[in-house]
Amino acid sequence: MIKVASYNIRKGIGADRRRNPDRILDVLREVDADIIALQEADRRFGEREGVLPLRLLDDHSDWKPIVYGMKARSMGWHGNTILVRKSTQVLDFEAIHLPSLEPRGAVMADLRTKAGVIRVVGMHLDLSGLWRRRQAAAILAHLASCLHRHPTVMMGDLNEWTRAAGCLKDFTRDFLVAETGPSFHAMRPIGRLDRIMVSPELRIGACGVHATAASRRASDHLPIWATIGPR
């Protein structure tokens, strides 16, 4: 089994409205997942600089980012990126273009892990339900078009409040959703906006929401996590 996590870090801006990448890294160390999908990992304007400096990750963590940067100083693709253990072999990675009114995207990586080769998709979907469904369809179509198939975990901020309709209804035709719990708003979580989903080749062990004093301060979302492995 390996541990995966998803975390919308809100560009590093915490409950005190201050940008603090060290605080985000403290929370990531608490979660201690093997694979982490990050959303809002870049600033929104200008050079879209990555929130977590590469030097900070190199010197003070066990992770390396898969850099999908749109610009030289960016880490993610429309703010989405994936962190993996420094020992993990990255076999392939690419950005997924999504239909949208506002800048949105998803990222994908094929990773060799102790649970085998796993395909990971990280995403941050639209606030509009209509566009979320279009984006879900684009992600599923992209996966279906891949030459090579691998057990797949998809995770991110779906912005979907209900599991019975919308994009989650589309995703759950082929994927199982981890029962992680509500993760938004961090100070008083009531919304299950963040989700982890796995293909039938994978099983979910333990899962949950990482709610600590540090995670409640660091972002407006709490991290979610799950242990997954082959069936």
From TrEMBL:
Organism: Sphingomonas zeae
Domain Endonuclease/exonuclease/phosphatase stretches: 5-221
Cell membrane listed as a keyword: no
Single GO MF descriptor: endonuclease activity
Listed PANTHER family: CALCOFLUOR WHITE HYPERSENSITIVE PROTEIN PRECURSOR, ENDONUCLEASE_EXONUCLEASE_PHOSPHATASE DOMAIN-CONTAINING PROTEIN
GO cellular component: membrane
Claim: Metal-binding is one of the keywords in the record: no
Keywords: Endonuclease, Hydrolase, Nuclease
Protein name in the entry: Endonuclease
GO biological process terms held by the UniProt record: GPI anchor biosynthetic process
InterPro entries (UniProt xref): Endo/exonu/phosph_ase_sf, Endo/exonuclease/phosphatase, GPI-anchor_lipid_remodeler
